[in-house]
Design a protein that fits this description.
Number of strands of chain B: 11
Distance between the termini of chain A: 36 Å
Radius of gyration of chain A: 13 Å
Largest sheet of chain A: 7 strands, mixed
Structural class of chain B: mainly beta
Oligomer: heterodimer
Radius of gyration of chain B: 13 Å
Strand content of chain A: over 45%
Largest sheet of chain B: 6 strands, mixed
Number of helices of chain A: 0
């Protein structure tokens, strides 16, 4: 079990640039979550998918943020254009089913710095 | 939306002392999960509580779920330096396993 794989681990970019974060969930998991972690706001749920379908994107902060899950083994979170306040650690997590009692398995995160 | 509050924000203890973090929700929770995040790491699942009044133990860690399913606690007996990290509760669940994380309690253990 390779766990949830995120790339890149670190991303430094200039304000206005497009940023794409990538996630490969654990094979067989059919729920995928994107979280953002900052000192000020803690762990925020941005969006989650079930069977590749976005279920709730109410946590996405602005239209600059978008997420896709084209297949069961890949998801992206895109920020366009990026701003300094988007600097945070972005985590992807997956869980095995849509049931109520499933642990979330987190990836190592992508630390994004926007200058 | 659902809010999960967690206190204290920070806790500094001497190795061997006990530690407790508390989690409170504004609404009744389907279940509650606890996670530990080491410095520079990612949250790692510890345990899940589902039943009202449930108590579970993992070695020196004791987890409780309140009778009204609105609060929970994590107690560590005789802390060790390996317990250092941030402990998060996450309340929710429901049909799509949607969890709201508390703000976390950062534990520092002095040897």
């Amino acid at each position: 079990d390779a766990g949830v794989i995120q790339s890149p681990r670190h991303e430094v970019t200039e304000m206005g640039q497009e940023v794409t974060l990538r996630c490969k969930p654990i094979s067989g998991h059919n729920s995928l979550f994107w979280y953002r972690q900052t000192m000020m706001r803690g762990l925020e749920l941005l969006i989650y998918f079930n069977n590749n379908v976005p279920i709730d994107d109410s946590g996405m902060p602005e239209d600059r943020f978008s997420a896709k899950m084209p297949n069961a083994s890949f998801s992206t979170l895109k920020i366009q254009p990026s701003e300094p306040r988007d600097s945070a650690v972005y985590f992807c997590a997956s869980s095995p089913d849509r049931g109520q009692n499933s642990p979330l398995h987190f990836g190592n995160g992508t630390r994004l710095t926007v200058t | 939306g659902q809010q999960v509050m967690q206190i204290p924000q920070y806790q500094h203890v001497q190795e061997g002392e006990d530690f407790t973090t508390y989690c409170n929700s504004s609404t009744t929770l389907s279940n509650i999960q606890w996670y530990k995040q080491r410095p520079g790491g990612h949250p790692v699942f510890l345990i899940q509580l589902v039943k009202s009044g449930e108590v579970k133990k993992q070695k020196r860690l004791t987890f409780q779920f309140g009778e009204a399913k609105k609060n929970s606690s994590l107690h560590i007996t005789a802390t060790q330096t390996t317990d250092v990290g941030t402990y998060f509760c996450a309340g929710g669940g429901g049909n799509f396993n949607k969890f709201y994380f508390g703000s976390g309690t950062k534990l520092n253990v002095k040897p």
